[in-house]
Hints:
The structure holds three protein chains of three kinds. Chain A is 36% helix and 13% strand. By secondary structure, chain A is an alpha/beta fold. Chain A has a domain at 4-256: Amidase signature (AS) enzymes, CATH 3.90.1300.10. Chain A has an eleven-stranded mixed sheet, with helices on both faces. In chain A, helix 8 links the parallel strand 7 and strand 8. Chain A starts with 8 loop residues before the first helix and ends in a 12-residue tail after the last helix. Chain B has helices spanning 65-77, 174-191, 231-250, 296-305, 310-321, 325-333, 335-344, 350-367, 379-390, 396-408, 413-420, 428-441, 443-450, 456-467, 474-486, and strands spanning 7-10, 13-26, 63-64, 85-86, 89-92, 102-105, 115-121, 124-137, 141-143, 150-154, 161-167, 203-213, 223-228, 259-263, 268-271, 284-285, 292-293. In chain B, strands 1, 2, 7, 8, 11, 12, 13, 14 and 15 form a nine-stranded mixed sheet that branches. A three-stranded antiparallel sheet of chain B has the order 6-5-16, with no helix packed on it. In chain B, strands 4-17 form a two-stranded antiparallel ribbon. In chain B, helix 1 (65-77) crosses helix 4 and helix 7 (335-344) packs across helix 9 (379-390). Helix content of chain C is 36%, strand content 6%. Chain C has three helices and two strands; from the N terminus they run H-H-E-H-E. The chains are: A alpha/beta, B alpha+beta, C mainly alpha. Chains in contact: A-B, A-C, B-C. At the A-C interface, helix 9, helix 10, helix 11, helix 12 and helix 13 of A face helix 1, helix 2, helix 3 and strand 2 of C. Strand 3 of chain B pairs parallel with strand 1 of chain C, so a sheet runs across the interface.
Amino acid sequence: MTNIIDLTLDELANKIKSKEISSTEVTSAYVDRSKSSKKLNTYVEETFEQALKNANKFDNKPNFEKKLPGIPLAVKDLFCTHNVRTTASSKILENFIPTYESTVTQNLWDAGAILLGKLNCDEFAMGSSNETSYFGNVISPIDNNLVPGGSSGGSASALAAKLTPATIGTDTGGSIRQPASFTGTVGLKPTYGSCSRYGIVAFASSLDQAGPMTRNVKDCALLLEVMSSFDQKDSTSIDFKRPNYSLKLNKNIKGKKIGIPKEYRVDGMPSEIEKLWEKGKEFLKECGAEIVDISLPHTNYALPTYYIVAPAEASSNLARYDGVKYGFRAEGENLIDMYEKTRSQGFGDEVKRRIMIGTYVLSSGYYDAYYLKAQKVRMLIKNDFDEAFKKVDAILTPSTPSSAFKIGDKKDDPVSMYLNDIFTVPVNLAGLPGISIPAGLDKNNYPLGLQIIGKPFDEQGILDIAYSMEEKINFKLKTNDWWIK
Amino acid sequence: MSKDQYLIEKNGNKYEVIIGLEVHAQVLSESKLFSSSATRFGSEPNTQVSLVDAAFPGMLPVINEFCVRQAVKTGIGLNAKINKKSIFDRKNYFYADLPQGYQISQYKDPIVGEGTVVLDLPSGPKTIGIERLHLEQDAGKSIHDIDPSSTLVDLNRSGVALMEIVSKPDLRSPEEVNLYIKKLRSIMRYLGTCDGNMQEGSLRADVNVSVRKVGTDKLGTRCEIKNVNSIKFMQMAIEYEANRQAELLEEGNAVDQETRLFDTKKNQTRSMRSKEDAHDYRYFPDPDLLPLEFDDQFIENIKKEIPELPDQKKNRFIEKFRLTPYEATILVSDLDTSKFFEKVIEKSDVKLSANWITGELFALLNENNLEISESPISPENLSKLINLISDGTISGKIAKTIFEIMSKEDKDPNIIVEEKGLKQESDPKALEDLIQKVLSSNKDKVNEYKSGKDKLFGFFVGQVMKESKGKGNPQMINKILKEKLNG
Amino acid sequence: MTIDLKTVKHISKLSRISIEDEKAKKLEKDLNSIFKWIEQLNQLNTDNVEPLTSIAETTLRLRKDQIISKNIREDILKNSPKDNKDYFVVPKVVE
């Protein structure tokens, strides 16, 4: 029989339902492997004992109607979990224990899943390499000293290293798709409003979305089905009919029109990525899809737009971390002194940098020039996609402009770090669904991903395209457990 | 320029005072504006605080429909433009009682636009312009005087819905401010959108004051006096501030635009230290919310719920009941008073009711510092008392005696009349006998009267009253006396 | 638009984050390079473009006026840095 940890989410669910394996067996396997993988530094909070207890409980009184019956999952430490420490990988929330649960994780537990632990990420989801966490860098299982991507770096690394059968992350500018691409896994950011933001530590409210991170497309569809729901407690949650994505998953994409945006061919793009993109087009044609050249004229302005809008919203969302109600507090001579010391000591450099950018672009005299301007450009970017989707059903692009880089490579130049998100950011700005699937390897055998962008609420459409491409690509993620102790 | 104009005089120069008010009125609702915790006043600290109110990570606002309706209703009561689309913005600043580090408010696109409020000045009606009304969250409370070395924070009030009503700078005196606040309060109490209870903090105001030399057009630099929670303090603050500013100008100095507080112990305004940094609130549309939109039908449905408002009621009282404008104004100014009056006149004469309420009852209430809702005499019993006068059972004078008895114990006046035998004597035969007795015992005076000393009539009336132990029906006595003396 | 040290200090005050001079200098450098890059937006003419006010394609949902969150004071104060069962406690504020 296949090793438990090699089973996909879908396979696990089936084998548990058919009583071939128990929740306890599965959970123990993952707990053991996680315990031996500390080198990767993927966990911030381990809930192994409780997980085993819950697994036992499930086995004694199983419910096989559930979609994730007794399946252990670790989740990004941005989701508030009841009575389980939630830190957003920040010192300022180092000892914060929520008395409430996020809607998305509640959906997981309601579907029968069991919490393995909370996964490391970039502090407050700000970063593209998981090098800004208060709890230290996450290492990619692909190679020592390689970044896993970010901000959901801990999630991607744990997933690729098989420390969890699947996981969930959040994506504000590419934080699910980019690490998925770097680690050879599948990551999906749903349409804005699909997954509830209630109980997720907020970064940029108009961009944040939770999403599944899995080993294959089928698992992704299943997990999305569980995660996505209409939530009254989130005013930006949308009430639309959510299909059973995994049941409806379909490889037949004959006649679908796939757009190739010319502006995504950026200067200095490594030839490997160009080749990968071409290969992707070929695969799609083989599946019976039609390739259409399109233009998204304002693509180049997406990153600067993002780096105005996201920090602006973040500067306001992070104002609540003031040491008054919860979290870290530094002693101060008076209230203002306390605020200044608390936030200076509690936040890391990248977070402080973004708060400063955000405060500046909203400040008196600059609002029109920056924030208002950015919101207008955002409209132009969205219009680009709306126009394109009149001609095509989906859009194919590379996920990232390069494969994973070494830890420390981009530390000194914030702008070069930001450029990692060049292909993913426009999707958040336009609120569209996007999925990254592993598509090949570069000359160092590091994974490269391709991204499929869909129309609003057409997650099924991009899942189907990804599903058919996945078969053609036949990517096999190989890691040699070099980090296991 | 009327001689009643409120002016500040310094060194022979006269200064006009320009006042604008930003009134913060707590919306009457069960739960808060963006969260579902309770709004009741006076609860134990931090027992009406939800996770959203305390700004825990991941918490999100969801708007209360009823608060939206209350704001629209108030807008209609202010004859204002209702904006079918409005935006919620974040007003960013740091303070201990502001858990989010921002207040959700409305900046450029408020829910209600321009409107008017009419003041009933003695010299005639004056229209005060309303600039706008918007919805926003109230902050929690910082308590500085329990612990000497710390400030304690209670978030019960954090998130309660406020309507901020901004007036145009049309007010010119402390008295106008008094009338404005009372009118605003009255309208909202009639509508049921705010209880206007200033002691509990349901109504507070920021007062903007500037001065300018009479005859000039340009507005002076204004100062904002924040968070004044009683009309009396507002008036004192305005007077102090206007004088302060006029003096500065007289000395050749400029008035600095600043935010001040009214010190209720010293009765002075002073500059607020903590807010020296320019208010850079960095307003931007709240990305956790969407634009608020509703249609004409929504507004129409609310219009249907609107009761008769003070101005309309006043006009109706004047036209239908022939009350004087003065009487009508007093009777409608307060919702409870108008309810009391309308209850009494269900069964009693309108004029008499108006007189008794604005006269005897108000005097009683003022003496004992009571609101009409705390009146020791119920409207039903007052009505009965008035009816006893109307049907001649008692005289007005006796009624006053009974009224005093009722003020100590809200008894049915009919019972008091019975118990104390206070029925007035209206039997003509009995009165004739008394009158005859008096005339017989005062023959010389009768002669004096007959020879022209008309004033003595009053003497005879007095004597008859004395004989009747005050119970004689005055009209009857007059009538019979006249007949006897002139016949 | 160049950002000088004075501006950095002003922004840090507005955001209530204290910053030592050395870090302020580095921040000044970082912010300037970031803003130089951001300024490319000025190349675009957006005169007749409406700003995107909301990406969610729906209208603001109105909630019923009901009290759902009752007294949860213990939970509210549970993570508070200071031990007080009734209030949040902060250093004295002078107004």
